[in-house]
Amino acid sequence: SFEEHAIDDDYGGDGVGGGAASAAGGKGLVGNPVVAEIVNKRLKGLTATFARSIRSQLGYCIKDTDSEWDAAFNFTKDTSFLNNCMKQTNGDLHQRVCTAAEMKFYFNSLIESGEETRWEKSYVRPNKNCNLSSWIDGCEPGWACSAGEQKVDLQDAKDIPYRADDCQACCPGFFCPHALTCMIPCPLGAYCPLSTLNKTTGICDPYNYQPPAGNPNHTCGSADNWADVMSTDDVFCPAGFYCPSTTQKLPCSSGYYCRKGSTSQTRCYKKSACPPNSVNQDITIFGMLLVIASCLVLLIIYNFSGQLLTNREKKQAKSREAAARYAKETAQARERWKTARDVAKKASTGLQSQLSRTFSRKQKLGQAGGMSSKGLPVGTDGAGKKSNLPDMMSSLEENPDGPEGFQMEIGDKAGKKMPKGKEMHSRSQIFKYAYGQIEKEKAIQQEMEENDNNMSLSGVVSMAKEHEVGSRMPIEVAFKDLTLTLTGSKKKILRSVTGKLMPGRVAAVMGPSGAGKTTFLSAVAGKATGCDTSGLVLINGKVEPIRAYKRIIGFVPQDDIVHGNLTVEENLWFNARCRLAADMSKAEKVLVVERVIESLGLQPVRDSLVGTVEQRGISGGQRKRVNVGVEMVMEPSVLILDEPTSGLDSASSLLLLRALRREALEGVNISMVVHQPSYTLYRMFDDLILLAKGGMTVYHGPVKKVEEYFSGLGIVVPDRVNPPDYYIDILEGIVKPNMSAGVTVKDLPLRWMLHNGYDVPRDMLRSTSGSSSRGGADPSSPGADASPSFLSEMWANIKDTIMQKKDEFDYNKSTLDLSNRNTPGILRQYRYFLGRVGKQRLREARILAVDYLILCLAGICLGTLAKVSDETFGALGYTYTVIAVSLLCKIGALRSFALDKIYYWRERASGMSSLAYFMAKDTIDHFNTIVKPIVYLSMFYFFNNPRSSIWENYVVIVALVYCVTGIGYTFAIFFQPGSAQLWSALLPVVLTLIATQQKDTIIADLCYTKWALEAFVIANAHNYTGVWLITRCGSLQSNGYDISNRSLCLWVLVANGVIFRCVAFFCMVVFQKH
After folding, report:
1. From CA 192, how far away is CA 224, in angstroms rounded?
2. Which strand (E) or helix (H) includes residue 798?
3. What is the DSSP string of 233-279?
4. Which residue ranges does the record annotate as region Disordered (predicted)?
5. Is-contact 702 686, C-beta < 8 A?
């Protein structure tokens, strides 16, 4: 424009030049808004001058130089204070405004001050205009001088101009620092009016500086300092007011609130209490409403989840019951048809004999052969049509189950051809197929029992072929001179065991306590750990590792390790899906599960929860049967059971053994440890393995020949005494029998080896009946004559433990597979684990509700007590938040793995994927990672109301929860529950102390709490601009934070979560606590 061009010419070409001519021109344009706009542009143009210095010295607190400078010194909306200053100085404003060099000098004085006084109100260092030899009025606080006729360039960042002319009070809207003779515009958000002298105190209110004594003409000026709010808040627009310009202060209207340093008033949320001059809005009601809504949602989810599972179970039960009823009616109809067939067969036989007699008489009368009395051919009815009775009878003979000769209807539906297993998709079809097969198997078994034909192996095989039941791989385990020796202590726990476990037979392993029964079965299953194994083990006559068959080997532990928060059917169905062949149809898997449920007598409790210590479930005997059924549903070829009948009554034991007998008849190799079986159970076993103390064999052979063998040694079982109890009492030393001459209890293992012609170790040959060998220890072994030292024993125990862990790891990581069974891969198992863990979490909704309630209370307390402070950007409240969220979320994460370790060990040993298990647990816990921050912020944010948005706080807490959840996993897996809880409570407090006290150290950088707290403070500091700029820089510098590190903080938290999850997975795979 013409006016701007004229001013540029008058001011020496830059709008702020000097000299007499420029002064005269400036006075002619006093109060012109164009001049004020030009000055504003020149002030905005200083960013290019300061950019490099800001990036090098203040890059930690100023991210975007242009935007931050505009937020502080862009007076485009209101330049009235510039016009007023032009009038006050008679157009000499351009000669009084600080140049870039003077501004740089002022801020450097603040930055380069000592650590203790940094960012505090202080004097500026001596300079050209104000020093010991020259101290003019303009050096006093609130006063400034003109540069006179000099040409002043605001962009000059090197030389400070000499200012000593026409010293007067600083203009409103500017501040004049002590020991500087120029004026600096007050930043936006400041209120810099002209001060007034308080005659009582002699201080210029509201800036707290005194005019020089003895100079009555020296009046109070404007502001004298812009510094950290903790040092002085004189220039800050007070709370409850807003300052659209640096010389205007307006009260906050009703329905609005104004924080300290506000340039505009902020509208309150609807329904929130905001009277006039409100400092903050009261949004507690929104927090309460959000809590109520969250509680309602949680209650709905809790009730709906339980109802969802209940409805699903009822629907399945209804479909299952209908299928069972259909199968029973079909079986009954088939039985009725067989009965009618038998009657018809007998009647046809009688009719045939009668006709034969009639024909023989008619032939004597000379009638034509082949003609009936009525002249009809044989085999025709009275109408001359051929009778279908012979064809029908022959068809019945060939296919006794076929409905030949009539249309059979069950209920109101005609019998239809059922699709095959792989063609079935609906639940009703699958259940009809399964129960139909079970009813057929029952009918065949009953028919065989009626014909006194016990279900031999060949009979079962034929039944399997008839009903399309997949055959199992037969596995014969033979062992010769099998000896186990502890790696460290060299103690022999199993000695020279020779024998064979054959498919289709049930072997009972018995013996006194300490005889090595469980050790023997563990060695057979390839699970013996921490031992040196010698001898020969053959699988189907070949030297192969038994571990290669672990997918078809079932091992039932002594403890009932089944998930208590799942139903009986869910436990069995999960194992069937994960451990049966991947290509097996769903219908066939359902058939396997239903067959096991039926054989173990679990039908009445199939939909009942197994139960835990806190929640009662099924009975102990039923739980024991479920423990066995978990291994039966995977259709093993070898089934090993450790004391499956312990704690069961005689009826439950009989039911269990009958189920095992049925498995054996299908070709399964079954061996089990049994304590004190009844005589009925004892007679149901095929083979008996009797071990003496020290792991030596006393007898290994058929049950029918055991009494005959011991009778040959002079051991005769008295009348009405159970043979196994009597033999165990002898081996325990309770009973002293009258044996043959020269035979003692100690010699029984030797007698058995000599009886079968086995190789006898030399130490056993040298032993006598009076031998004092203890526990089967080798007398020639080290330590038999002299007790080992304490250190050697400790080292031996350590070696045993290390080798045990190594063997466990080798067993689980073995990749050789000879089982010919392709189980589901990791992704399918992940899906199965996901469904199971989801059900468990739904049934634990009450525990989650308690966690959420505690988080709500923590948010209320911390949000109320630790209010956000503008001076520290809420660092105190966020510190408490980091500690509280870390503690509560770690405790919640401990439950994911601490209580399920024993279940994982069993599932892992059976060949299930550890990665699928871990990932499923972590995936379900992501629900808490998302929801828990919402629950906490619903209280903390609305009670605390920081300047950062709720989304910014939510993102930080999500990253924090993800991080501490991974740490909780590690503690839960590596430590015992008590120690894990202690570490979870102690770690966040200690790390927070380190992060806040040991700033800018490597140790602090390793603490996740440092990054979480920095992310919170940075998110809040972004909203402090304008007059808060120095406060922000001072706070971030004192804490060692960088405003550009917000994304870095979030990524570090997420990376910590990933790293600790990897550590937790490694510990889960490598370490096992027994």
Report:
1. 9
2. helix 790-813
3. -TTBPPTTEEEEETTEEEEPPTTEE--TT-SS-EEPPTT-B--TTBS
4. 345-404, 764-788
5. yes
Interval 660-684 mean pLDDT = 89
Domain that holds residue 586: 477-761
* 285 alpha-carbon distance from chain centroid: 34
Phi first, then psi: what are they for 534, rounded to 5°?
A: -125, 160
Beta-bridge partners for 677: none
Please return the burial class of 973, using the count of CB atoms within 10 Å of its CB with bins 0-12, 13-18 and 19+: buried
For helices 950-974 and 1046-1070, give the axis angle rounded to 10 degrees.
20
Where does residue 514 fall: left (phi above 0), alpha (psi -120 to 50 degrees), or beta otherwise? left
Amino acid identity, position 68: E
| Residues 205 and 252: beta-carbon distance below 8 Å | no
Q: What one-letter code names the amino acid at 254?
A: S
Residue type, 275: P
205: β partners = 196
How many helical (H) and strand (E) elements, i.e. helices and strands, does the chain have?
Answer: 33, 21
Supply the CATH number for residue 711's domain. 3.40.50.300
When comparing pLDDT for 81 and 381, which is higher? 81
The 3-state DSSP class for residue 509 equals: strand
At 956, is the pLDDT very low, low, confident or very high (cuts 50, 70, 90)?
very high
Per-residue pLDDT tens over the stretch 480-527: 888 888 776 677 888 888 999 999 999 999 998 888 888 888 888 877
Domain total of the chain: 4
Point out the domain boundary residue: 299, 323, 347.
323
The one-character DSSP state at 456 is -
Q: Which helix (H) or strand (E) holds 169?
A: strand 165-169
- Rounded CA gap, 652 and 658, in Å? 10
Q: What pLDDT is stored for residue 460 in this prediction? A: 47
Residue 110 lies inside a defined structural domain of this protein: yes
* Residue 1074: per-residue pLDDT: 42
pLDDT tens column, 396-418: 445 544 444 333 343 444 444 44
Q: Which helix (H) or strand (E) holds 314?
A: helix 284-364
Higher pLDDT, 304 or 753: 753
More confident residue, 383 or 363: 363
Asked if residue 682 and residue 627 are part of one domain, the reply reads yes
Q: In terms of DSSP H, where are the helices of 474-540?
A: 517-525
Q: Are 155 and 45 in contact (CB under 8 A)?
A: yes
**Can you state the percent helix, strand and coil of the chain, rounding each to 5?**
50, 10, 40
Whole-model pTM?
0.79
Q: Are residues 551 and 630 in the same domain?
A: yes
pLDDT tens column, 266-324: 888 776 778 888 888 777 777 777 778 877 876 776 666 666 677 777 777 777 777 77
Q: Looking at the predicted structure, is the pLDDT value of residue 364 above 80? A: no
Same domain assignment for residues 178 and 295? no
Same domain, residue pair 229 and 289: no
pLDDT, averaged across the chain: 79
Length of the chain, in residues: 1074
